[in-house]
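Task: complex structure prediction.
Instruction: return structure tokens for all chains below.
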Amino acid sequence: MKVNDAISGAIFLAIGIFAFVHAGTFRTMPGVPFGPGLFPRLVAVMMGLGGLILIFNGLRAVRYQPWLRLEEWARQPRSYLMFFACVGVVLFYIVVAEELGFILTSSLVLIALLLITRGTSRAPSSVLIALTVTASLHLLFADTLRVPLPFGLVEGWLVG
Amino acid sequence: MKSMRTAVGAIAIGVMATLTLGVGAAAADWPDRPITLIVPWGVGGGTDIVARTLAAQMEPALGQPVNVVNRTGGSGIVGHTAMATADPDGYTIGTINVDLSQLVCQGMTDLTADEFTHIALINTEPAAVSVGAGSDFETLEEALDAIRDNPPGTYTASGSGTGSIYHLAWAGLMVTAGIDPGRVTWVPSDGGGPSLQDAASGAVDFVTPPLSTAAPLVEAGKTRPLATMGSDRFSRLPEVPTIEEAIGEAWTSQTWRMIGAPKGLPDDVRDKLTAAVRAAFDSQPFTDFMNERGFALTWMGSEDAKAFHASEDSAICEVMKAAGMI
Amino acid sequence: METLLAAFDLVFRFEVMLVILGACVFGIFAGAMPGISATVAVALLVPVTFFMEPVAALAAIATAVAMAIFAGDLPGALLRIPGMPASAAYAEEAHEMTLKGQGGTVLMTSLLCSVMGGFVGTMALAFSAPWLAEFALQFQFFEYFWLACIGLSTAALVSASNPAKGMISLSIGLLLATVGFDMISGAPRFTFGSLHLMEGIHFIPVMIGVFAVAEVLRSLTHPASDRREHAHVQRIDLRAALATIWRYKANIGRGSGIGTLIGALPGAGSDIASWVSYALARRFSKTPEKFGTGHPEGIVAASSSNNAATSSTWVPSLVFGIPGDSVTAIVIGVLFLKGLEPGPLVFVENAPLVFSIFVSFFIANLFLIPVGYVAIRLASQLLRVPNTVLMPIVLLFTLVGAFAINNSTMGIIVALVGGVVSFFMQENDFPVAPLILGMVIGTLLEQNFMQGMIAKGGDLTAFFGRPIAATLGVITILIWVTPLIAAARRWRQMQTRHGGPGAMPHRNSAGNPTAG
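Output:
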């Protein structure tokens, strides 16, 4: 999934310009002679400059470099399934973990992801792996390293 | 096989017990799971170390682990907000620092004393004025005269970020001495320790962290303390005068640390927490730790801490206005 | 001599040895987990150290940190997912070696270099702590600023093949580092009124996203390449490791030296030491073109450097009570608790106890070898697990790790966004290491620049006003200017030879008359 440098250059040029303009709005404190916008602006200029170089290179190469080139992997639907499955389960985790608690959410996320990557025919072992990994994660992070993982239904049972 | 059956039995009983009692059971059996103590500052900072030491000592009194959780960012706003907006069920408590009053005053957050249930105040720490060993100043009086006599911008001071408690302590001292705070350039720094290094290397002229932090450098002959902003002298460096003794004008400024919870915490849970903090506060490891570090042990119960926090909210605002910081 | 013997008596006892061994294993887990930093590992040890005697308590901390810094290399080399920021500088390089089937060997090399770096740092701590501390106290804003600039120049070196893309990647990191509250002015920046953004963007979740999440996406979407076939079996070739170490012994010396000096500076630490050493190894290498293709030279320098820094970080803490980093900030607390008041007299008044700390550093480093060896053997088994199983599990670990750093869902969001962006950046040949570097160094660079400007009323000459600052400034300018001149010369030669820049190999030079 390779885009012409001119496209990525334009994206970063736009971000650079936005950051430069936005940095001008930062509130300065009385008594501080240099604003908090100075450094972000310098960095924004650097980013914009890089973007300009890429646009320049990309436009010169446009005859040889297509606007969008799809490699082997990017022509297979399965790749997109994998990509969106990964992003999807993370989003699912972010949204529901506080409600369901870590153990339930983690198990669901892993089972779903393993079913997609390994196929449904190996469901029993996938479920087993998911439960084992969830249990070890909980043991390691919540019990040993004392990370306050989301507390939910299953955790409530375990405590009782 | 037998142990297996016992385990299954135990789990079954556990599950049944939870179901019958329900999750929202009365505070009578509080706490039945670990308690989270939110620290709005990074691991290894003063508040973090105090909180971790205290939390470890609270565990025996509560019979549950007390997990210290750092929620940093936004000059402390993030962690304080996370604590204030948590469920008032006693399972989320946190530290409240003096810095919050300043942020309220600057309009950065609405978290006034009313937004919390106060459990206890455990520590106050007076700021102090120190200079590098290479400085010409031997007394605070000389230093203030030099600031008056030289053009603005001749001298620099540091201690922490712009608008922080140490900045406020310095600006308040200037106002007390009748000097425009703008005559001395405030160089923000990452905290008390780094600013002391800046004084020792000669990068800034005056710094304001507490004497407890400065003591090793004083003993190493790298910095020289001129005065402490406490109402009494500091026991480890008894030769350092208070501001009143040094210049004849009274000015005190201190940081403080409290343990609090979201507002609306049931009274019986609050009282249990206050008792647990008190037990930890009196425990040998905690008092040893605080004494060794030179951190003052100051106790205020729930009501006193709330009143004190509210008074600080307004007092700090007045100083900031007088010093032109807002 | 008597103090040293007394120190040995304090350390060589069964309980102390047991504590060191336990801390070793704990350090391995903490270090290999992205999201659990050395600081968090030490913070977790603190309540445990209450019940230990002073030597055991301090030995536990020293051991856990040394082990964690090495363990960060394990997932870095095997999965291209650095467990620690200090490993990020050379994770890609080490992974290239894993793809060639040399993962076990490179980890063994890095383990032995870590041990040697640790020894150098400990020697420096034991015999020149007061001197090192005096040196560190000489550093003002200006010196720190130049040091940060030298660190930044690493970015140019790791992205030599496409400087414009490297520059963009670096600027992303530098911009991300400014999100949140500005310490200097107290003003919120790029927060858009959101409490989540006010939290700032912590660089560990970014690192997790950029390396770990992107790697999960990449290996699940890309069909298994034949390069990974070699990666299933990772032998540990001790002879090859020793040969590598011998060949690059100068790099170990330089890396350890740099690590010791940078570690002694409060505010800088093993992360920066690692990047600077890697960059200098490349700068002085006879074969700089091999860097990035699975070449151990930079790994040798950087892994000895970051372990040297972990020992010398104790210098300012012990001598002046100023913490060198957040780990030693906790250490100071423990020192006080154990009745050891930091100060220059600590070496006189508490000599046996202080020397026993140094002895325990040595022991800890010796323990690193067997424990690290076992860890390498076990971790290498990971590569036998099929990607379709391993990657979902890694994804779950990254979720929890990104959450753990600030106990906030924001970490997971940052890691996810960072992962997707990094995935597309890598698809388009953007180097991602400069992004991490920008986040590591951005704050140091900006704060010291602003502090220096404020303290001197905006006088730029102050940045050259002191001997150390001027020297570092000149070094920085030389590092920046030399490759530019060289590049300009090469470009001009290419112009005269081909009639245009040779960046696009497929193109027909006659077809583009506007070139140049």
